[in-house]
């Protein structure tokens, strides 16, 4: 009988609401950069820096988008795209290469300081603690949050940053990498995530169970796919699967 042995989780908008923190991070790190450079130049009695938040922010976004097209293998490595875009932008504004690299790196430090300030759903820690007693757990994310700086990190001995593998979801590579590190076959694993395209379909196509975290059901659910509106409903799905397993429905 094929029993469930491991559960992998998407992070953003699965274990926490990511929209607010990303908006604060996006604005916060770029405003910090411009203000810090202005203060640095003033202390050196250098002219005011030419970038504004609005114009500079748009140029920063366009540079990232262009880089993703020029270097498609890096399209999911958001930290790399941001760092290279900032370096190029600051050099274009007249900073020496060394200064551009220094300030771009400092801005990304601020980005990650803000990025990690997510608030997990109240049920998340207790849920993961209970699951860890019965299953192996892993995280698979396309995001660039530094999970090791987040309180939930202790529940994920295996954490896959798909962009750093140069294979963002829905590429099967991050799923297969996680399963390999867990030493678990796809049919013995479940993936939980909010994206139909990036979480549900690739996991289901590999033979994993998939749980789609979505408040609205606008897709027909294929075999091995389950839908919940919130992560707190996951135990209900697991209880149902246990009943099916015990009845031999998924036995081989």
Question: How would you sum up the global shape?
Answer: elongated
Largest sheet: 6 strands, parallel
CATH superfamily of the largest domain: HAD superfamily/HAD-like
User: What is the typical, i.e. mean, pLDDT?
Assistant: 93
Record field, number of beta strands = 6
Cross-sheet strand order for the largest sheet: 3-2-1-4-5-6
Kindly provide the name of the CATH class of the largest domain.
Answer: Alpha Beta
Number of helices: 8
Structural class comes to alpha/beta
Write down the Rg.
21 Å
In N-to-C order, the SSE pattern is EHHHHHEEHEHEEH
Percent helix range? 40-55%
Corresponding CATH architecture of the largest domain? 3-Layer(aba) Sandwich
Question: Proportion of β residues?
Answer: 5-15%
User: Roughly how many Å apart are the termini?
Assistant: 6 Å
The tally of structural domains comes to: 2
CATH topology of the largest domain: Rossmann fold
Low-pLDDT parts are none
Features:
252 residues, alpha/beta, Rossmann fold, Four Helix Bundle (Hemerythrin (Met), subunit A), 2 domains, six-stranded parallel β-sheet, 6 strands, elongated, HAD-like_sf, hydrolase activity, HAD family hydrolase, HAD-like_hydrolase
Characterization of the model:
The protein has helices at residues 19-43, 53-70, 78-92, 97-115, 124-132, 173-182, 196-205, 234-246, and strands at residues 6-9, 136-141, 158-161, 189-193, 209-213, 225-228. The mean pLDDT is 93. The chain has two domains: 6-16 and 120-248, HAD superfamily/HAD-like (Rossmann fold); 19-116, Four Helix Bundle (Hemerythrin (Met), subunit A). It contains eight helices and six strands. Helix 7 (196-205) links the parallel strand 4 and strand 5. The protein has a six-stranded parallel sheet with strand order 3-2-1-4-5-6, sandwiched between helices. Helix 1 runs antiparallel to helix 4 (97-115), helix 2 packs across helix 3 and helix 3 packs antiparallel against helix 4 (97-115). With 252 residues, the protein is an alpha/beta fold.
